Structures are given as structure tokens and as C-alpha cells.
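Example 284.
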Amino acid sequence: MLVFETVPALKAQISSWRQAGRSIALVPTMGFFHQGHATLMRKAAGLADKVVVSIFVNPTQFGPQEDLGAYPRDPERDRAIARANRVDAVFMPGAELMYPPGFDTWVESPSLSRRLCGLVRPAHFRGVCTVVLKLFNLVQPDVAVFGEKDWQQLAVIRRMAGDLDVNVRIEGAPLVREADGLALSSRNSYLTPEERAQAPELYMGLKKACRLYREGERETAALGKAVRDYWAVNFPLGKVDYLHILDGPSLEEVRIADSRSRAVTAVYLGKARLIDNVLLSEND
Ligand code: PAF
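Predicted structure in complex with pantoate:
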């Protein structure tokens, strides 16, 4: 597996793959890999001849009071996991390489970005879109794979790529859960044992909405209330930032749920802000 820390070396490798007629998949990440990342890498390997994984804790997507300094990092372990998942190259730029002095251009897709997570993280998706577009320009992939755990991020990136005619196919990969239902996230490492013990209730609450949907309930207000009622009893450590039942692809709020509807949520649990989502019609 190749490891690149500079742009010229990365670009030279990309053009040599291109000249040999190889297709390229990119998996943008912030590292500290878990099985969810491994799933993205394996999906990418099925979509293109060569897989490039970027590892960059992107400072511009963190707010001033957020966890940039504390964000977990383990580059050596990350490289071993990438190698084990048949990644061809890892790109690990430094912050000064991605944001040299004088950097002053931003990419934003405001109508999808200023809602849900964007309400408490106002500059977050601007940072995400900017760094993702830079990575697309550097790696020039045919396809890029993102986790569906961050449902809003996936929608924002699809919109950005579509609006700006970026020649990259955007693919989502389903989120991966622990055996007890907690969605895998690098930020789960912030949880204390007590918080970790309660964390699966986040998903159990969402599943409540799926069960009611299956039983015929379609009013999103009733579905949302059932989830909040469940959490009030079973998830007292969780502080709900938002819970919405939305049309999945457009993120539009709906009054009557249908087969495209998703419950999307963000909840504070101790130092962690956990996000999760489920397709109402698909879960048991
Ligand atoms: O999902 C993430 O890890 C990040 O937001 C991303 C897409 C790598 C951009 O920094």
C-alpha cells in the first residue's frame, strides 16, 4: 500500500494509474478507523480498480467550541486497517497543505446545510464541502464512497457534486452497528462506561418508529412522539439535539411518512454528539 503526504507524489501515481486505464475510487475519511470505514473501503474496492483513502481531520468543519483537538487519531493503526482492506493508497495531507496561508475560497450548499446538524454546527458543511471538493480535484476519482450514517452529509455532498457538475459518482454505504445496535463512530470512544451502556437506546428508540410504521402509523408527529417518549424513559442520559422524520433523499420534512421516509437524529451523550438514522420501512 502506498502512503502519500504530498500532492505531487499523489498526482504522479494517479496519472500513472490513469495512463494504464485504471478506474479510481476515493474514500474520504478523518481516520480512527472502525468496521464502518472498512465497509466503505471494501465497497470502494468493488467499484473501481484502485482505492485511495484520504485521512485528514479537517479543521474547517469543526466549530470553535468543538472537539478538533480531542478528535481521536491513530495513523499507524489506520494504515494497518487500510492495508488489510486492500486499499491501494492512503493520502494523509497536513493541514498546511490543504489550507495554505491565504486560503480563501469556500464551497457551500446552504439550503441543505443550514438545517439539522447545521443549526448547531453552522460552518460544518461548508468545511465538509470545501475539503471534499479539494479531495475530488486532487484524486480525480471516478467514484467516491461516503457512509450513510451521516445522512445529511451524504445529501449535501450529492447536491454539491450535482450543482457543480463534478464528474464523480457519489455512492453511499450503509452504516455498521455494534451487536447491541449502537452505530459505529470514532466519537464513541468519548463515552464513559455508563454512557456506553445506555447508548444502544438511541437506536432502540428509532426502531420504535419503524415498528409503528410497520403497524400502519403514518403521521410523522405520532412517530416522532413515540421515539421521544421511549427515550424519556429509557435514555435519560441522552440530550436530544433533533429528531426529524424526513423524506430521505430531499431531507424535506413530511407530515405523512412513506417508503422513502427516514428518522434522523443527533443526541448529546456526555462529551459525544451521536448521530443516527433509520429508513422507517426497512427496519425490523
Ligand atoms: O465523514 C467524514 O469523515 C468527513 O466529514 C469527511 C467526509 C471525510 C470530510 O472531512
